[in-house]
TrEMBL record:
GO terms, biological process: siderophore transmembrane transport
Native species: Marinobacterium iners DSM 11526
Intracellular or extracellular location(s): Cell outer membrane
Chain residue ranges for the region called Disordered: 261-287
InterPro entries according to UniProt: Beta-barrel_TonB, Beta-barrel_TonB_sf, Plug_dom, Plug_dom_sf, TonB-dep_rcpt-like, TonB_rcpt_CS
GO MF entry, a single one: siderophore uptake transmembrane transporter activity
Domain named TonB-dependent receptor-like beta-barrel: residues: 251-642
Protein name stated in the entry: Hemoglobin/transferrin/lactoferrin receptor protein
Residue span, TonB-dependent receptor plug domain: 54-149
Motif position, TonB C-terminal box: 660-677
Superkingdom per UniProt: Bacteria
Entry's family note: Belongs to the TonB-dependent receptor family.
Alphabetically ordered keywords of this record: Cell outer membrane, Membrane, Receptor, Signal, TonB box, Transmembrane, Transmembrane beta strand, Transport
Amino acid sequence: MVVRFGWKKELVCVIVLAHGATATAETIRNGDPETTDDQKIVVLGQSVTALGNTILGAESIQEQLSFSSRDMFRSVPDVTIGGGGRNAQRIYLNGIEGSNLNISVDGARSGRNLHQHRGGFGGIDPDLLQRVEIDSTTGVADGPGGLGGSIRMTTMNAREMLQRYGHGDSFGARLKTGYSSVDEGKHGDVSLYGMASEHFGVLAHVAADNRGDYETGSGRSAIGSGGQDRDYLLKVSMLDFNDQDLHLGLSRSQNAGLYARGSNGSDMGYLPENPTGPSSRVQQRTEEDRLTLEHRWNSDHQALDLRTNLYRTENRLSYPGSSISDIFTREWGMAIRNDSHYALAGFPSRLTVGADWFEETAHTNALDMQDAMGWPDLRGQKVEYTSKNLGVFVENQIELGSLTTTVGLRLDDFSSNYGPIQVSGNDISPAFRFDYRFDNDFSAFASYSKAARASGVIPVGFLGRLNHTTQAQGGNLDPEKSRQHELGVRYTPERLPLTVQLKTFQTRIDDTIQTVGRGSAPLGRGDIFNGDRLEVSGWQLSAQWDAGRYSSQLGLNILDVEYGGKDPGAVRRLTAPTGDTLVWDNRWQATDTLSFGYKLELVADLKDVPQGEPQRDGYHIHSVRAHWSPVQDLELALAIDNMFDRRYANHTSLFSQSTGVLDEPGRDVRLSLAYNF
């Protein structure tokens, strides 16, 4: 609901509520009740599902022999990265595109799209990651803008690298090289890390990927899919100093290549051998720079577990060697929260109070009105657009015997400008979750949440086509809103190393802020508007088995996507039907130094497509992998993806009459060699 009274009154109400609850916690905390902390989950192996979240640990990520983010998420059925070439890949969570998710690295949000979808989440070197948490629902403490959920990534620090590779040493280095056959890709990275003292550590990491055009399962070359990736990280950490941790990080993720721009093939990642229209391939480079500061103060005091994140990001799309001006965004942001553990009438409880804020300024050039149809199209004066969000939240969790209730409230004040059009307001978003344990084996859960924002899904480059004649369809723009709920059961027998979960879920997103496709023409009356209702509903079954040296996990995701009450196909920067998907991943630790893995991806036919688009064939992909450490500190890995060289296209890939649908890579033999000093 949109709140009708003043922002200051709302803020006072939330602060008073939070202060009162904190006072209660302080009064009764001396009883030293049993406390819970659902954030302290250590994941070392396969991906797991905990408290509704999917968590990937460092070992799980690296066992996939991941050279890109696409490889990293292949074992998670509700996350899809499709689109063929690296520059065209989009990430989806339960069919909702990444522009509508809160995706962060070390607390720093990914910015909005710069051109088409480029400049949003472009990926990160998987070797950098300690943990990835995927949450398909929106919690009040998950930050702003996550209409369809969140993906939170945390990078390694020096101590974690030493614990994993250093054998108790104070300093270490890791060298890794790799090769992928499908695109003749070469990969290499270097990590240097050490603890200068008991509390002070430094990690430096550099990674490079060079790829050619990949071949599909039919042997066809995906022209324009080759490119280069570069990843850099410098992370300085102060650890366990007076119950506090402090991390200062400086990182860059870069992608460059000769990619299609404009018209046919521009966001398909592919340009036909005989293209029609004005599209052509030009040198393009995207860069995401992140400066992050993370602080945690986790004292013995039950009322103090304080976490603070500050960040600055710059997202830039440039065209080296051309007259096209850079398109870029700069964002400052922060988040602070405190968890207090206490007992309420003898029941273990946790109170979370916090706030977050960001301000993003987008920069591009206006349309050259003297030559509106010329190319390059944006050659007018420099213009900028600002999006802001300030949120405060309070959440309380209490264990009432077999029932655990989590109740939260979030208040957002937001504003965004679209040329002459302003969108601003405030919104209260509640979130509820109930977990009930019937006995030691069976439990059930239910949740409901809402979210709101005003930042839209319009790429920054498209904003240059706004001018004084632009008017919103219907006279004004409303903020974007979402509503989510899920209901499920979980089976975790005490006598078996098994977890089975079945849930049904629905996400509804209303009033996404969009523009019509006008190419290089200016946006006029009614060309910016609130989109139709998006509804994604489905079922998800997950099972995990871990018995000695063998582990297996099975995930089944069944989705139904409707946009405006119709089958949408892929709607740019909003949604795509990912197709009913089953992923079965297995791992066998044959010896202490040798392990094998097998993965099956099974995707059903996609028959519900918009008029004029072809139905999509389903596919099944088989992949195998092996890891071997013949001597201490030396690691050899082999992975074969799409082992039978299947020709297939991801259902999220865009379709056009000129380019059709781009097939995904065929058989890919990947090798890696790593040595730890």
